[in-house]
Each structure stands twice: as structure tokens, then as C-alpha cells.
Design goal:
By secondary structure, this protein is mostly helical. 74% of the residues lie in helices and 0% in strands. It is elongated and about 70 Å long.
Length: 178
């Protein structure tokens, strides 16, 4: 029988906190809970910031945030959950970047913090107070960390790249019409 230590408790608290925040943030997008816009409102916002089609992007973002948040909180498939959350938060950072760093100015502080926390948990692992540990780390192998981060990096790069291209084209079109 293994004895849990403070590292395991600390990882559990980090996972539960970050995972809970991510899941709640995704529930705002998907269901309109906690004052969120739901798929319609979030879809309109996503479209306005260059993520087209808006409703499809809102659905993917919401599912990613809810799914990765729940998986992180449970400590299940931790490398994939951490990487997926980091990718979703990278997409949010890009939107908020023009406003600077701090959240009170509409900046990217909050999504950057969540993304870095999720990445750190994905790399570190969930600790012994987790479903990954209970299942013998079947979904938490060493090779899964770079694989999950690489796959998420490519997918995020494609989505954010397409969004940035669309935003630049709209800005050039607006400038030409002035």
C-alpha cells in the first residue's frame, strides 16, 4: 500500500482547480451556464474575432474546455487533457493579445495562466490521487506527453493561423474601403 504525500495532494488541488475552471468556462460556451453566451452568443462572438464558422468553433472550444477540464480534474489521460486545454487557451490568448497582458484590460492573463497550468500538469502527471494512477497509467505514458503536445501544437497552429489570415484580410479590406 502506498502512502500519499503532499505532492499528490498538491497535484490533486491544482488539477481540481484548473480543471474545474476550464470545465465551467466551456459550459458557458456550450450551455450558457454561469452567465455565458451559449452556442449562439459564443458563436457570434467567435465569428466577430475571426473564428469562422462561429458556432462550429464555439462548439469545438466548449467541448475541448469541458472535456479537458473534467479529465484534468479526474487525473485521467492527463497528457492529452493538458495539451488540449493548452491549445484551447492558446486560441483565446490570440484574441485577447491586442489588449495587453492584464485581465482587467481585457488581456490574455487568464487564458495564458490556465494554458500554462494545464501544460504543466500534462507534463508533470496527475499524481497518485488520480484515475490515471488507479488505471496503471494506461493513458499517461511518457511518450504521450510529446505526442499530445505536438498534435495539439499542429492543430492549434492551423486553426489560429487560419483565423489570423482571415483577420488580416478583413483589416486590409477595411483599409482599402476607407
Amino acid at each position: 500500500m502506498t502512502c500519499f504525500d503532499r505532492r499528490d495532494l498538491g497535484l490533486l488541488l491544482l488539477r481540481a482547480g484548473a480543471g474545474g475552471v476550464l470545465a465551467a468556462h466551456g459550459a458557458q460556451k456550450l450551455f450558457g451556464w454561469f452567465g455565458g453566451g451559449g452556442l449562439e452568443g459564443t458563436g457570434q462572438f467567435m465569428e466577430s474575432v475571426g473564428y469562422v464558422p462561429g458556432k462550429a468553433n464555439a462548439t469545438v472550444a466548449g467541448l475541448t474546455e469541458v472535456g479537458s477540464g473534467v479529465l484534468l480534474a479526474l487525473g485521467l489521460a492527463t497528457p492529452a487533457a493538458g495539451a488540449a486545454a493548452a491549445g484551447a487557451m492558446a486560441g483565446a490568448v490570440v484574441v485577447h493579445q491586442p489588449n495587453g497582458f492584464f485581465a482587467q484590460d481585457g488581456g490574455y492573463e487568464h487564458p495564458a495562466y490556465l494554458g500554462l497550468t494545464a501544460t504543466g500538469l500534462g507534463i508533470t502527471g496527475p499524481g497518485r490521487l488520480s484515475l490515471d494512477h488507479a488505471f496503471g497509467h494506461l493513458f499517461n505514458r511518457g511518450w504521450m506527453v510529446p505526442a499530445a503536445l505536438a498534435a495539439t501544437g499542429v492543430a492549434t497552429g492551423l486553426v489560429v493561423g487560419a483565423r489570423n489570415k482571415r483577420v488580416r484580410q478583413e483589416e486590409q479590406g477595411s483599409a482599402a474601403g476607407e
